[in-house]
Design brief:
InterPro entries: DUF475
Number of helices: 14
Low-confidence stretches: 226-232, 352-356
Radius of gyration: 21 Å
Keywords: Membrane, Transmembrane, Transmembrane helix
Protein name: Integral membrane protein
Order of helices and strands: HHHHHHHHHHHHHH
Mean pLDDT: 79
Transmembrane segments: 7-27, 33-55, 76-101, 126-147, 168-188, 194-217, 238-259, 265-287, 299-317, 323-340
Number of strands: 0
Structural class: mainly alpha
Helix content: over 70%
Shape: globular
Number of domains: 1
Strand content: under 5%
Pfam family, one: DUF475
């Protein structure tokens, strides 16, 4: 059995490389030890911010990843992290600037390095669309977990059992998200309303498309495998996890500008956090932690619903990332404590076999 250290060895090595790059960048660009230490401190804070905002992401990733083939689990940790680090933390903000400012990728990179204030302004102005897309997608992820007819374990029983009664109603969760999206859009000025609604609809379409791809691939696998030997489609699950990670990263990328508007510093800090989230996901899967703590998933999905709602509302109101992270941590902490309490009362439920 792997030790805890093995799960995080690569993440610590990656962190060391990022800190070395931050130190080199700080010294070469400022020539000051004090300024370099300041840059290193921002990288540390950004990495902690990313982990705190994305712990629920790790838990949800683990719920999908545990049913995937080990080969795809490894691809998620390798290829997936390249997409998460270079795609969402570096390419995504540059792409936003390139599209919004109608300039080429190289000009967008130059803008981020030579005029960080303007770069920050352009990315921040794209927040309306990001809030609509990410908020709608995350809200669907969270609600789908609870509107499941096969769901038997309930944490907040009074609410979750009531929700479960309506799980047979087709697309009820989508209807709730659309109502919320429309209500938020009524709070926006006309120019922002169209952008917000369009992005939210694209978020819903993306959610449907990813699940449709997964379902199609799983049906093909089911035709080839004997009953009882079917595992969740590697490709379908991989695509779902990458879109989910992208939705989570929106909040971190935008929030990072509260600490720095330098693309290099933001990319290094968020990349460290993203790597640790990946390691936490693998750790949760291979140690069977989700099975041992029966309400941990519930806390994570409630946190996702809260994050989705906050992202939608952020199109109109400024909500500090500290509040978002704190609410998520409280929900996951309570679900963990509730799980421990349940295991003490019913020791048989706590006996699990860690995943291979």
């Amino acid at each position: 059995m792997e030790t805890i250290r093995n799960y995080y060895t690569f993440s610590f090595g990656f962190t060391a490389v990022c800190f070395a790059l931050a130190a080199w960048y700080g010294w070469s660009s400022t020539g000051s030890i004090t300024a370099t230490l300041g840059i290193l401190w921002i990288v540390v804070v950004l990495s902690i911010l990313e982990v705190s905002l994305s712990f629920d992401n790790a838990v949800v990733n683990a719920t999908v990843l545990r049913d995937m083939d080990p080969v795809w689990q490894q691809r998620f940790l390798t290829i997936g992290i390249l997409i998460a680090v270079f795609g969402m933390r570096i390419v995504f903000p540059i792409a936003i600037v390139a599209i919004a400012a109608r300039v080429g990728p190289l000009e967008a990179i130059s803008l981020s390095l030579n005029n960080p204030a303007e770069y920050e302004r352009i990315v921040s102005e794209a927040h309306i669309g990001i809030a609509g897309f990410g908020g709608a997608f995350l809200a669907m992820v969270g609600l789908t977990f609870f509107f499941d007819n096969d769901k038997e374990v309930h944490w907040i029983a009074a609410i979750e059992k009531t929700i479960n009664k309506f799980s047979n109603v087709p697309a009820v969760e989508m209807g709730l998200v659309l109502v919320l999206v429309y209500w938020v859009s009524t709070l926006l000025v006309p120019a922002d309303k169209i952008t917000f609604l369009t992005a939210a609809v694209l978020g819903l379409v993306t959610f449907i498309a990813v699940h449709a791809i997964a379902a199609i691939i799983e049906e093909r696998e089911a035709a080839k495998k004997a009953a009882g030997q079917i595992v969740k489609s590697g490709l379908g699950g991989f695509l779902y996890l990458e879109v989910l990670d992208a939705s989570f990263s929106f909040d971190g990328v935008i929030g990072a500008f509260a600490l720095s508007n330098n693309m290099v510093i933001i990319a290094l800090g968020l990349s460290v956090g993203a790597m640790f989230v990946r390691s936490m996901t693998i750790h949760l899967v291979r140690t069977g932690t989700l099975a041992q703590y029966r309400y941990l998933e519930h806390g994570a999905f409630w946190a996702i619903i809260v994050l989705g709602v906050i992202m939608l509302l952020s199109a109109r109101y400024h909500i500090p990332e500290t509040i978002t992270g704190l609410l998520g941590a409280v929900l996951i902490g309570l679900s963990f404590w509730w799980s421990v309490r349940h295991n003490r009362r019913f020791p048989a439920d706590a006996v699990t076999t860690p995943a291979d």
